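Query structure, 226 tokens:
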């Protein structure tokens, strides 16, 4: 059996809002193995994005811990957490979050430059990744000059530039029509198996979830394997 790369234990997350206390996650346990695709499903508002933000160390839980490759993630300082995130985790969001003033190539290179790598060391890898997802010839296009499906493919490639251990994708095809969704899903599966990458995908798309190695259902603040 493949190696466990991420383990979340007893994750709780609450928010204090003007209308009261909101206990969204109430003891989530979860593990992800190498090269595994895990789908996180559940109704709107159940806490899928909240969980992904915690798994990606974008947010700290109210209680609970996260281990990744033997690192106790939330024991890190905020600066340590930012460095860890940049090197270890890739993110894909529903809306691509590409920077509008930069080209597709520059957007893909950006996380590597933030990690301190030199442009000349990164550019070849970025071109290769773009070509791999059928975007050869689109490198100099700005986001406004790309289709919805192409934008999401750029976003997926960008998430891989630092060779992360895991990619967290929040509704990656939520904004696409069915043909483009299917193409994006095929691409994610292909990249996961060829690059041996783990993906955790929050989705309302049950077709996508059904293809995952494992489905985690969130309900009442807890995760159940389905
Ligand atoms: N920063 C915040 N402050 C207060 N409440 C929040 C905050 N972020 C999320 N929530 C609340 O936490 C709950 C879970 O939100 P979350 O975005 O994780 O749901 P979700 O399962 O991703 O939903 P969707 O499928 O609609 O994307 C919601 O009730 C939301 O209103
Ligand atoms: Mg969400």
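Result returned for the query:
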């Amino acid at each position: 059996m493949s190696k466990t790369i991420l383990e979340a234990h007893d994750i709780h997350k609450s928010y204090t809002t003007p209308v009261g206390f909101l206990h969204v996650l109430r003891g989530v346990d979860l593990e992800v193995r190498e090269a595994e695709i895990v789908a996180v499903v559940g109704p709107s508002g159940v806490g899928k994005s909240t969980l992904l933000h915690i798994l990606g160390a974008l947010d700290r839980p109210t209680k609970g811990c996260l281990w990744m490759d033997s690192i106790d993630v939330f024991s890190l300082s905020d600066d340590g957490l930012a460095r860890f995130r940049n090197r270890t985790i890739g993110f894909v969001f529903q809306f691509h979050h590409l920077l509008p003033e930069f080209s597709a190539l520059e957007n893909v290179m950006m996380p590597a430059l933030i990690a301190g790598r030199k442009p000349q060391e990164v550019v070849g890898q970025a071109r290769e990744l773009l070509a791999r997802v059928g975007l050869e010839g689109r490198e100099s296009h700005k986001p406004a000059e790309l289709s919805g499906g192409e934008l999401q493919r750029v976003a997926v490639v960008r998430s891989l530039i630092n060779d992360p251990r895991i990619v967290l994708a929040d509704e990656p095809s939520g904004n696409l029509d069915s043909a483009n969704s299917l193409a994006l899903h095929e691409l994610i599966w292909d990249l996961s198996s060829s690059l041996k990458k783990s993906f955790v995908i929050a989705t309302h798309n049950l077709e996508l979830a059904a293809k995952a190695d494992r489905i985690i259902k969130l309900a009442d603040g807890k995760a159940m394997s389905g």
